[in-house]
Input
Amino acid sequence: MRTRLATTLLWALVFSAVTGSAQVSSSQIDAIFAALKSNDAPGAAVLVVHNGRVAFRRGYGVIDLRTRTKIDAHTNFRLASFTKQFTAACIMLLARDGKLHYDDHLTDFLPEFPEYGRSITVRNLLNHTSGLPDYEELLTKQYPDTPPEKVPQILDAGVLKLLEQQTSGEFPAGTKWEYSNSGYAMLAMIVEKVSGKPFGQFLHERIFVPLK
Output
């Protein structure tokens, strides 16, 4: 957590420096990230764009402590929960379009979902009060004695299948807050159901293209 916070703060410094002055050199930016230079410790990939052009692109540290492969400009990172803000924006766009409402229920869109989903609203999914079981924990239980990095990743349809095998949520919807990856997987599926388009296509057409 401290490393992530430090990286975020360093990013803020770089952004402020570059947007405040076009005279900042690559060596000055590189100096800000000097603490991340290592041949045997995790690091970060840094990209600075100024006036629509790449002003700085460099990798620091390693991808994996076992292989010690260095991070570079082409390293592929998992986006993970950075995607949640885009998923929420998609739902809000559909709500603005009148295609769905925040108080619609999960089973309105996924009628095959078990009975415990009937009380879960879109609002509950958005604000982490759905009570849906955590799919990562459910998945891990299917692979006992398997290191976390060896447990396979699954797509949203796989998450739905896991949740359909459950008979109840962790708590009644709306009675408690608990961060939910499962809820946002369901929101992505709702976007596809309502829009009739693959999630990536909807993102492309309604968010990324309009924002260039």
